[in-house]
Specification:
The complex is a heterodimer of chains A (267) and B (464). Chain A has 267 residues and is mostly helical. Chain A has helices at residues 7-16, 32-52, 86-91, 93-97, 132-148, 168-202, 206-210, 213-228, 233-266; strands spanning 114-115, 118-119, 125-126, 129-130. Chain A is flat. Helix content of chain B is 44%, strand content 24%. Chain B has helices at 2-44, 62-73, 97-102, 144-158, 214-218, 238-241, 284-294, 296-299, 329-332, 343-360, 370-398, 402-412, 415-427, 435-463, and strands spanning 54-58, 77-82, 94-95, 110-114, 116-120, 126-129, 139-142, 161-171, 180-186, 196-202, 204-207, 226-235, 247-253, 257-266, 271-277, 303-313, 321-322, 325-327. Chain B folds into 3 domains: 1-30 and 225-314, 2-Layer Sandwich (D-Amino Acid Oxidase, Chain A, domain 2), CATH 3.30.9.90; 36-93 and 142-223 and 318-399, FAD/NAD(P)-binding domain (3-Layer(bba) Sandwich), CATH 3.50.50; 400-463, no CATH class. The chains are: A mainly alpha (267), B alpha/beta (464). At the A-B interface, helix 5, helix 6 and helix 9 of A face helix 1, helix 7, helix 8, helix 11 and helix 12 of B. Chain B: Keywords: Chlorophyll biosynthesis, NADP, Oxidoreductase, Photosynthesis. Chain B: One of its GO terms (cellular component) is chloroplast thylakoid membrane. Chain B: One of its GO terms (molecular function) is geranylgeranyl reductase activity.
């Protein structure tokens, strides 16, 4: 990851380009060395950087001109390190002229349908309508990819895609319907069986049961249960969740538990 | 999941509303209660003769400094012991606006006024926060060495004796009302670099000595869970610094921290880039790398000038008061979840504790006892418990996983949320919200969560 790890070289760089050498005087002095550097870096540093590129860190892809685009921050004070990406393109056409500057070493998400930080909905059209299912799918894939390859955030190339542009019915169609089918079936079965059980035990018919407060409450409990406990593991999850929500309270109250003891002692 | 988070959210608003009422009512009632207690205290505790109450404040951070100042102003003989007077502590250094007024801070100790925040989600959706701020509102960024020494100097000006020394241990008294003996190594012109062991007898002790508090050890206050915060101060080229002029960035995501956030904060002439975690402390280097990587375009060319790491308490210690010893600030564990804020709460707890001591001792004329120290605890919990709890719930709901974080960032884009967040952050008071807006927010949040978790399920399917 660190290419210019030798601090001696990097501190020497500015000396190579004295003020008089600066071609674009309207840029700050601070920045100028980069322009020249990036032009010349190949000749100056290619050997150096090749030597230092043994460890490429967390699997970042480096660009062809190995000097740029790496993380500069690990233990090398590189004021004069050439910068990468759009910034440089914007500031110094001189730098890009030779075609040496490429975008950062971190791989960006790329997809023909991903245009300017959002999904190009026109490309998702099917029979004149947007195929939201495919958009959801594409976004899921993008997020999955990002989880394994975290991307640098960028102000020049912001992500503007907002999941809320996908209409609600598309979500329901995608996620809810299969699940709802299952839950409905489950609730119906439980309801039918309970009604049968109650009837056989008490002699109350289904109509009588619906006018009974207790039965109505049980119905509510059953529905809530079906919604909350969808899998066996859900019971454990719920238990943990309850514990978690009260944990912090207990930590705060600890001082007061101590209090009652010591108060009773002093009183 | 969604329905559960909904419950959290609804409950959350309810509690803050309730609390608002209790807050205003306690503020109104506080004075008479104090007067009542004063009488009881003066009946119980013996009068001091020939001298005023002596209190040692261990630690000269915001908590210690403000405690010492309040004590000294209240007529108490105050000793402030700080181990290093020019200590640059590893700290984000953000203070809310109300601290400037409440602690009467001069404006020149604020290096930067942050008026814009950027929150960046795991999928790099960036949300700008701060549109709702009024022109005079900002988050102050201070250097701790400057703030701490200012507060200490003010304490000294009020009559406290500020001593440079390393606190070693505390001998607890064997009989009631007997003094505490403080052992410390003093460093001054006479002792030189090696220091000299000295002792000091005091009637009460305020432990403001931070996360690794020795005072807490001496009173067997118990441990707390802590997060480790890692931070690098990076000097970046001026042109890039201009971007961070008045802007702070928060990165969330599993890559950056599994249970907290990564940050880029502007400091006086550089930026602080860091991250924190409770659950995966050994991976902190990896998270730091990820944070740098996410902020990469904006900090390339930077030079690391300082690397720091520090424990951050996650909850209060089981015991915060024992007899005439009280803990304040980080030593007590007063750092909020979610935002990880501690400077204001440290200074405030120091002051509240000192006020309780001054009241209990009738401006230093009487001995104090545990009940006086407890009064500080009681007031503190009453005033701030709900704030801590709300932030705890927020952290638990929204820092849980990447989909939750996506929803969180989405939610933060809402102007109403921003207004509420800044109001409660800047002024440390809970303003009742607009019920209609609250409802819209709750529905919107549930929507965001459902969408994000829906996508997550789809992502899991891809793997399979």
């Amino acid at each position: 990851m660190v290419l210019l790890s030798s601090s001696t070289t990097s501190t020497r760089i500015p000396v190579l380009f004295p003020r008089s050498f600066v071609s674009k005087p309207h840029f700050s002095d601070y920045h100028n060395p980069y322009l020249h550097l990036s032009k010349r870096k190949k000749t100056l540093f290619s050997t150096l950087s090749n030597g230092a590129t043994t460890d490429n860190g967390a699997g970042f892809e480096t660009s062809a001109t190995a000097v740029i685009g790496e993380n500069p921050l690990e233990n090398n004070p590189t004021d004069s390190r050439p910068k990468s990406g759009k910034d440089e393109e914007a500031v110094g056409p001189a730098a890009t002229a030779g075609g040496e500057v490429e975008t950062a070493g971190v791989r960006k998400f790329e997809n023909p349908k991903w245009v300017n930080g959002t999904w190009d909905l026109k490309q998702f059209e099917k029979d004149g309508k947007t195929d939201w299912d495919a958009v959801i799918d594409a976004e899921a894939r993008r997020r999955k990819w990002l989880e394994n390859n975290p991307e640098s955030s960028s102000n020049e190339d912001p992500v503007v895609f907002d999941t809320s542009i996908i209409p609600w019915w598309a979500w329901i169609k995608k996620f809810h319907l299969p699940e709802a089918e299952l839950l409905n079936g489950r609730a119906a079965m439980i309801g039918f069986f309970m009604a049968y059980l109650v009837d056989s035990l008490t002699g109350l018919g289904v109509v009588d049961q619906t006018s009974n407060f207790f039965c109505k409450t049980m119905l509510f409990v059953a529905v809530a249960g079906v919604l909350l406990i969808r899998k066996n593991e859900d019971v454990e999850t719920l238990k943990k969740l309850i514990e978690e929500t009260t944990f912090y309270d207990k930590q705060w109250q600890a001082a007061w538990k101590d209090d009652t003891n010591s108060r009773s002692k002093t009183d | 999941m969604a329905s559960i988070s909904f419950k959290h959210f609804a409950g959350l608003r309810q509690s803050t509303l309730d609390n608002h009422h209790s807050l205003s009512s306690t503020a109104a009632k506080l004075k008479p209660i104090i007067r009542l207690r004063k009488i009881t205290a003066s009946v119980n505790s013996p009068k001091l003769s020939g001298r005023n109450l002596r209190v040692a404040v261990i630690g000269g951070g915001p908590a210690g400094g403000s405690a010492a100042e309040t004590l000294a102003k209240g007529g108490i003989e105050t000793f402030l012991i700080e181990r290093k007077l020019d200590n640059c502590k590893p700290c984000g250094g953000a203070i809310p606006l109300c601290m400037v007024g409440e602690f009467d801070l001069p404006l020149d100790i604020i290096d930067r006024r942050v008026t814009k925040m950027k929150m960046i989600s795991p999928s790099n959706v960036a949300v700008n926060i701060g549109k709702t701020l009024k022109p005079h509102e900002y988050i102050g960024m201070v250097r701790r060495e400057v703030l701490d020494s200012y507060l200490r100097d003010r304490a000294a000006g009020a009559g406290a004796s500020v001593m440079n020394g390393l606190f070693l241990k505390l001998d607890l008294p064997q009989s009631p009302n007997a003094p505490y003996t403080i052992h410390y190594t003093a460093y001054d012109a006479k002792t030189g670099g090696a220091g000299q062991r000295r002792t000091l007898e005091v009637d009460a002790v305020i432990g403001a000595d931070g996360a690794n508090s020795r005072v807490a050890k001496c009173i067997d206050a118990g441990e707390y869970e802590y997060a480790i915060a890692f931070q690098e101060r990076i000097k970046i080229p001026e042109r890039k610094m201009a971007y961070y002029e008045n802007l702070a960035e928060m990165y969330v995501g599993d890559d950056v921290s599994p249970d907290f956030y990564g940050w880029v904060f502007p400091k006086c002439d550089h930026v602080a880039v860091g991250t924190g975690t409770v659950t995966h402390k050994s991976d902190i280097k990896k998270f730091q790398l990820a944070t740098r990587n996410r902020a990469k375009d904006k900090i390339t060319g930077g030079k690391i000038i300082r690397v720091e790491a520090h424990p951050i308490p996650e909850h209060p210690r089981p015991r915060r008061v024992l007899d005439r010893v009280a803990l304040v600030g980080d030593a007590a564990g007063y750092v909020t979840k979610c935002s990880g804020e501690g400077i204001y709460f440290a200074a405030k707890s120091g002051r509240m504790c000192a006020e309780a001591v001054v009241e209990g001792s009738e401006s230093g004329r009487r001995m104090v006892e545990e009940a006086d120290m407890r009064r500080y605890l009681e007031r503190w919990d009453k005033k701030y418990w709900s704030t801590y709890k709300v932030l705890d719930v927020l952290q638990k709901v929204f820092y849980r996983s990447n989909p939750a974080r996506e929803a969180f960032v989405e939610m933060c884009g809402d102007e109403y949320v921003q207004k509420m967040t800044f109001d409660s952050y800047l002024y440390k008071r809970v303003v009742p919200g607009n019920p209609w807006e609250d409802l819209k927010l709750a529905v919107g949040t549930v929507g965001s969560l459902v969408r994000a978790y829906g996508l997550r399920r789809e992502m899991d399917k891809i793997e399979a």
